[in-house]
Amino acid sequence: MSTMTSNVGVDAGEPTPEKPSKRQRQAGHIADLASAGIKVLLIKIIALGILDALALTAVFILIGQREWLVTAIVVIATGLINWIYLGRRRLPAKYLTPGVIFLLIFQVFVLGYTAYIGFTNYGTGHNGTKDQAVSALMSSALERVEDSPTFAVTVLEQGDTLNLLVTDPDGAVRVGNAETPLHAVDNAQMDGGKAVGLDGYSTLSFQEILAQSDAITALAVPESEDPNDGALRTPDGSSGYLYVSNLEYDEAAGTMTDTRTDTVYTDDGSGAFTAADGEQLMPGWQVVVGADNFVRALTDESIRGPLVYVTIWTFVFALVSVATTFFLGLFLAIVFNDMRMRGRKFYRVLMILPYAFPSFLSALVWAGMMNESFGFINQVLLGGAAVPWLTDPTLAKVSILIVNLWLGFPYMFLVCTGALQSIPEELQEAATVDGAKPWAVFRLIKLPLLLVSLAPLLIASFAFNFNNFNLIYMLTNGGPRDSSAPIPVGHTDILISMVYKVAFTGQTRDYGLASAFTIIIFIVVAIISIISFRKTKALEELN
Q: How many CB atoms lie within 10 A of CB 276?
């Protein structure tokens, strides 16, 4: 029996199949590509070609800016994408790559860059590099040299950049702009001994010079790479004069000296030239200051005071908002989940209407209704009363909670309705048969089962309200303003709106401090979320 089985399917005369040759494998690969469709292949090649062209352009720009790390990242990422999509295999990577790229760009990069800015002094007066700060300081202190010769000047334009074509008294021709010092050219177009044009540039007419007179008179073209050599300026677009700064820069010593007062300003590492008495020359430049922003946010008394009450109000606002919207939504869900009620679908549609409108638009409508002088609430409902709903510190907080309740309860109503309908009716019937009262059934059976599915949503709602910028900004703009605070902050500001004001409003904008606040908020919300999710694991035992 075993002998017969072993001989089944065996033919001594049948030839052994040969392995395909290399040429056959290549032909099979081409056939596979063709079977996928020539259109798909063309789309892939065109898409990769566009990507490579953009990457190559970015590489040239980055090399010009000496951004070596970013250049390496672009090259490696582009090569990796081509390797993934030009290969036959790696199918999972082809689907994951777009999502990973967007994750890195819009999440990881943003978070990392924000963290980096939090460790710098980036802000008003500290926006650029040291070289840019030196150039700006020297230009701001320029004074005309009394015995300066007169230079024949022609104003040129290249793109959006103004240039000065200068003819020296000895006949030499030079060209430059605010960023590029004057340098000699030998292909200028001459007219009566004066250079009037240059290949690659457009010469401005008299009318064009008049139209841009402010920009032209403010233009200062450096004489050389050394800022102490001064700059050339023109008051009328036809004649230029030498201007020398009353600040003298010593690059080796890292000092800036005011020649009028002999005051020496030193680069002490703070991102600005600083005198012995603490006076600083502005603008400065961006430098890494370590944890100074975080220390200042937590220890500086003038900042810590507003930070404390804003943080307290942020927690109160988030907690009260979650609690009120949840319990109102749950109450309405229980009411409209009663099978004996007629027209339940119509009532449910009415309940979710606030959720259907954009929140920022609803906030603006409520701001108009709560206006103290002509708002609908004061003029119609309260008979012409002058209740300061949005201008009194306490009432403004109450108003925000009321509006947020209006905006938030429909969401809780929807999720609570769905959760209630997912609870088996047998549990309630069994409890009723055992003599349990309706309140006991709700408290001991329904509510714990609801929290199993709703606890993560409540945590997410807390995180959302913790950073609910739209409502605060649209309704009160954080007001009323706290005039005693050194930073632009109001009584209804939450942390995220305070960060926005520190970064983008006021005469001084401190992006470094705002980024430090952002990192602190992120850490706080992350800790609360982690603790909350761990606590909610105990609810899973109910299932």
A: 9
